[in-house]
Amino acid sequence: MAQKRVALVTGAGTGIGKAAALALLKDDYHVALVGRRQEMLEKTAAESAAGERALVLPADITKPENVHSAFMKLKDKWGRLDVLFNNAGMGAPAVPMEELPIETWKAVVDINLNAMFYCTQEAIRIMKAQQPKGGRIINNGSISAHAPRPMSVAYTSTKHAVTGLTKCISLDGRRNDIVGSQIDIGNALTELAARMAQGVPQADGSIKPEPLMDVKHVGEAVLHMANLPLDVNVQFITIMATKMPFVGRG
What we know:
The protein is of the alpha/beta class. The protein contains six helices and eleven strands. β2 (30-35), α2 and β3 form a beta-alpha-beta unit. The mean pLDDT is 95.
């Protein structure tokens, strides 16, 4: 009998996290669904029709003790962790940098960077101690890990920081067969990105609609990365709506 494959996805109730969780569950993974809203996690679990292979774990992952509790529940239930998809994140209202409330800046840093680090620590502790040891940590970067949108300082700064975290995981994880990967996503159609079809600010000050892609393709890309053997890594992958303004100057 093949060893079960276990994954944990943060922000699994909506959008990219939901798409990735559904793709993993469809491929016979056991998946812990982590997020703030239990009812949304329950919907993801129900939609997957995966039964006992979907574990709903509501948690505010900006609190380290909640992160520890969620990972311990996964370990107690399934005994190991093969894949962490560090997906949960948030943006901030598009306002001039000097007008961004400090509380908003801190909230974005807390979920986009601090929570990702807390989850990474817990994953490494499990992955290096299990047999067979090792695993893969996939971070949700963004096109904003490479190029900012206007008035996006909190989101862009944290997503650039995610790239540093990914590289550190790759380097420090080697000795324990722990692999760090990053998926940079541009304009997947989610509740968060739907507004782009109506028009969003461009670097030249204009407002223009932008093309979007089906979020299921992001889920499939995460699954592809998850399924690689640990001696192979997609270090960075960019998946985007083909005609979105990223390549070139706008």
